[in-house]
Specification:
It is built from five helices and no strands. By secondary structure, the chain is mostly helical. Helix 1 runs antiparallel to helix 2, helix 2 packs antiparallel against helix 3 and helix 4 runs antiparallel to helix 5.
Length: 159
């Protein structure tokens, strides 16, 4: 792995840890929390560095997820600045910022299972059906988690 690959991986791990911590403690990720800011900053850096990694020679699924991550981050920040969207801003921001966790998990499980353990990885084919099952499980967890956030936000909404 290259130096950039290591930096990307370390930043992405910090992002994941701070993101899950923030969800457990605060129920939603926002830039108003220290751990939320750490998550959002590390997620931004991880997405940008992902766009600089070309281990297969061209634009691939990891790059597409990085672009989606950057769009979700932008959407989560911009929606709170548009007065006409004030009623949905918190819900949309939660969707965007939580969605970035999903976008982190897909390459994390893919790279993890295709690289580890070193010398004898769990999987050797990126098209392995086991990966698709993980992706589906992550999607279901994301959807359930978002519904829980939506209900929590609705309950705690400021009039």
């Amino acid at each position: 792995m290259t130096l950039l690959g290591w930096i990307h991986t370390i930043i992405a791990i910090i992002a994941l840890l701070s993101g899950f911590y923030t969800l457990v403690v605060y129920k939603v990720i926002t830039p108003e929390q220290k751990s939320g800011r750490l998550y959002l900053l590390c997620t931004f850096i991880a997405a940008v560095t992902a766009l600089m990694i070309y281990k297969h020679g061209g634009f691939g699924p990891g790059h597409a997820l990085a672009v989606l991550t950057l769009l979700a981050l932008a959407g989560g920040f911009v929606v709170t600045k548009i007065p006409a969207l004030a009623k949905i801003a918190d819900y949309f921001r939660a969707l965007c910022f939580s969605g970035t966790l999903l976008f982190h998990m897909i390459p994390a499980i893919t790279d993890g299972l295709l690289r580890l353990p070193v010398g004898d990885p769990v999987l050797t084919d990126p098209q392995d059906p086991l990966l698709k099952k993980f992706y589906l499980a992550f999607l279901v967890i994301f959807l359930v988690g978002y519904v829980m956030q939506f209900l929590w936000l609705k309950k705690h909404r400021k009039p």
